[in-house]
Protein backbone atom coordinates (compact mmCIF):
# COMPACT_ATOMS: atom_id res chain seq x y z
CA UNK A 1 0.00 0.00 0.00
CA UNK A 2 1.27 3.47 -0.81
CA UNK A 3 1.45 6.57 1.37
CA UNK A 4 -1.96 7.77 0.12
CA UNK A 5 -3.48 4.51 1.35
CA UNK A 6 -1.83 4.97 4.75
CA UNK A 7 -3.12 8.55 4.94
CA UNK A 8 -6.67 7.42 4.12
CA UNK A 9 -6.51 4.75 6.81
CA UNK A 10 -5.29 7.31 9.35
CA UNK A 11 -8.10 9.67 8.37
CA UNK A 12 -10.88 7.08 8.63
CA UNK A 13 -9.52 6.01 12.05
CA UNK A 14 -9.45 9.65 13.16
CA UNK A 15 -13.12 10.12 12.25
CA UNK A 16 -14.15 6.75 13.71
CA UNK A 17 -12.57 7.65 17.06
CA UNK A 18 -14.04 11.16 16.94
CA UNK A 19 -17.57 9.88 16.26
CA UNK A 20 -17.32 7.24 19.00
CA UNK A 21 -15.84 9.74 21.46
CA UNK A 22 -18.76 12.11 20.89
CA UNK A 23 -21.27 9.28 21.27
CA UNK A 24 -22.50 9.67 17.69
CA UNK A 25 -21.99 6.01 16.78
CA UNK A 26 -22.36 2.77 18.68
CA UNK A 27 -18.83 1.62 19.35
CA UNK A 28 -19.43 -2.00 18.32
CA UNK A 29 -21.92 -1.63 15.49
CA UNK A 30 -21.90 -0.05 12.08
CA UNK A 31 -19.11 0.84 9.74
CA UNK A 32 -17.42 3.93 8.44
CA UNK A 33 -16.01 3.97 4.96
CA UNK A 34 -13.95 6.20 2.75
CA UNK A 35 -13.90 5.97 -1.03
CA UNK A 36 -10.76 6.80 -2.99
CA UNK A 37 -12.33 7.50 -6.38
CA UNK A 38 -8.97 7.82 -8.14
CA UNK A 39 -7.75 4.38 -7.08
CA UNK A 40 -11.22 2.82 -7.03
CA UNK A 41 -10.64 1.58 -3.48
CA UNK A 42 -13.11 1.53 -0.59
CA UNK A 43 -11.73 1.60 2.96
CA UNK A 44 -14.12 0.13 5.57
CA UNK A 45 -13.89 -0.21 9.34
CA UNK A 46 -14.62 -3.74 10.60
CA UNK A 47 -17.91 -4.43 12.38
CA UNK A 48 -17.89 -5.60 15.98
CA UNK A 49 -14.70 -3.72 16.79
CA UNK A 50 -14.52 -0.71 19.11
CA UNK A 51 -13.72 2.31 16.99
CA UNK A 52 -11.49 3.67 19.77
CA UNK A 53 -9.13 0.70 19.33
CA UNK A 54 -8.84 0.61 15.53
CA UNK A 55 -5.42 0.33 13.92
CA UNK A 56 -4.46 0.83 10.29
CA UNK A 57 -4.01 -2.89 9.63
CA UNK A 58 -7.63 -3.58 10.68
CA UNK A 59 -9.12 -1.42 7.91
CA UNK A 60 -10.51 -3.54 5.08
CA UNK A 61 -9.58 -2.30 1.62
CA UNK A 62 -11.97 -3.32 -1.14
CA UNK A 63 -11.44 -3.06 -4.89
CA UNK A 64 -13.75 -4.44 -7.57
CA UNK A 65 -15.76 -6.28 -4.91
CA UNK A 66 -12.79 -8.12 -3.37
CA UNK A 67 -10.87 -7.44 -0.18
CA UNK A 68 -7.27 -6.54 -1.10
CA UNK A 69 -6.06 -5.34 2.29
CA UNK A 70 -6.69 -5.32 6.02
CA UNK A 71 -6.48 -8.08 8.59
CA UNK A 72 -10.13 -7.96 9.64
CA UNK A 73 -12.97 -8.61 7.26
CA UNK A 74 -15.66 -5.97 6.97
CA UNK A 75 -19.19 -7.12 7.72
CA UNK A 76 -20.77 -4.93 5.07
CA UNK A 77 -22.14 -6.70 2.02
CA UNK A 78 -19.77 -6.64 -0.92
CA UNK A 79 -22.52 -4.77 -2.77
CA UNK A 80 -20.96 -1.57 -1.41
CA UNK A 81 -18.75 -1.38 -4.48
CA UNK A 82 -21.78 -1.21 -6.75
CA UNK A 83 -24.52 0.50 -4.73
CA UNK A 84 -25.11 2.68 -1.69
CA UNK A 85 -24.97 0.95 1.70
CA UNK A 86 -26.47 2.30 4.90
CA UNK A 87 -23.53 3.45 6.99
CA UNK A 88 -21.54 6.61 7.53
CA UNK A 89 -19.78 7.44 4.26
CA UNK A 90 -16.84 9.83 4.03
CA UNK A 91 -16.13 10.55 0.37
CA UNK A 92 -12.71 11.67 -0.86
CA UNK A 93 -12.89 13.70 -4.05
UniProtKB/TrEMBL annotation:
SUPFAM superfamilies: AraD/HMP-PK domain-like. It holds the Pfam family Aldolase_II. Residues 11-76 form the Class II aldolase/adducin N-terminal domain. This is Class II aldolase/adducin family protein. The lineage of its organism: Bacteria, Bacillati, Bacillota, Negativicutes, Selenomonadales.
